[in-house]
Amino acid sequence: MKFRRYQKNDWHRICEIHDLARMDELRGARLEHAFLPLEVAAERENLFDYDILVADKDGLVLGFVAYNQDELTWLYVDPACYRTGIGGLLARSVLAERPEGLCIEVLQGNEAALDFYKSIGFVESKIVSGWMPGNEKFPVTVHCLAYASNA
Q: Mean pLDDT for each consecutive 10-residue tract of the chain (151 residues)?
């Protein structure tokens, strides 16, 4: 498995991964009706303003992560590869690039993601309510977590 920068020819594959995994994320939060395909969400949520890494195994993208200086914003793995360590490897590769630490928000009800981020060293700092980014007609509550390598 290698981790590399996103390339334009990865677009259709990351759309497939996002759309399947995003439904799992929203199901846990009981927000399935708020689903937007990546083709829409990427523009509304400015995906390409972030650094994007993909997990590539033998030429097949199995997951991706997007982040900036402060926040890990997107982390999706092909559901066929859940619990194989790909998500952890993607997250750790970003954390290695950002030793000053990062934050992330996890939808309330998405216990699998919350447990995952805590297992790799994120600590919950607060719970806040607001509107879903990119689909602001839906109210959401999120767990805010932070990671710092010196914590």
A: 96 98 94 96 96 97 96 96 95 88 94 94 95 94 86 48
Whether the CA torsion 102, 103, 104, 108 is positive or negative: it is positive
User: Domains of the chain, with CATH numbers?
Assistant: 2-147 (3.40.630.30)
**Cα separation, 106 vs 125, whole angstroms:** 12
The answer to whether residues 78 and 21 touch, using CB atoms and an 8 Å cutoff, is yes
Residue 83 to residues 35, 78, 88, 124, 141, Cα–Cα distance (Å)? 23, 10, 9, 22, 25
pTM for the whole thing?
0.93
- The answer to whether 149 and 101 have CB atoms below 8 angstroms apart is yes
